[in-house]
Amino acid sequence: xxxxxxxxxxxxxxxxxxxxxxxxxxxxxxxxxxxxxxxxxxxxxxxxxxxxxxxxxxxxxxxxxxxxxxxxxxxxxxxxxxxxxxxxxxxxxxxxxxxxxxxxxxxxxxxxxxxxxxxxxxxxxxxxxxxxxxxxxxxxxxxxxxxxxxxxxxxxxxxx
Length: 160
Prior knowledge:
Blueprint lengths: L1 E7 H10 L20 H14 L39 E7 L10 H8 L8 H13 L14 H8 L1
Antiparallel strand pairs: 1-2
């Protein structure tokens, strides 16, 4: 299966020099300002899902590497980084990877952002209203204040 991922140039340089690249879990722990971030929790959840589906070795020593399957939007072979405002003027490269499908846990590109940001993924308008009510009662907003430790288990259930 052909996958793509946007990575810093240093990842490409490592590939060219060593023919291998490893994920850097420490990059998932803090935001640009050094504040604790939820990415580590999200990737830990993803690893659990991969272990449950035998996508990762049972020793759990492998860290996950996120990429997406390109659907060929508008007949293009790859995403054009120049058309993506977030990636303009950044020192990134688009890597194309060919992996055996048995080694992949495929998720929806847009829904993955709920996991990555530790947002609930309501299955219906009713569920969405329920989450909004919970946040209102707690005087919080799960889009801005993450994670909500008292709701982690419930939030993770919405991702499955």
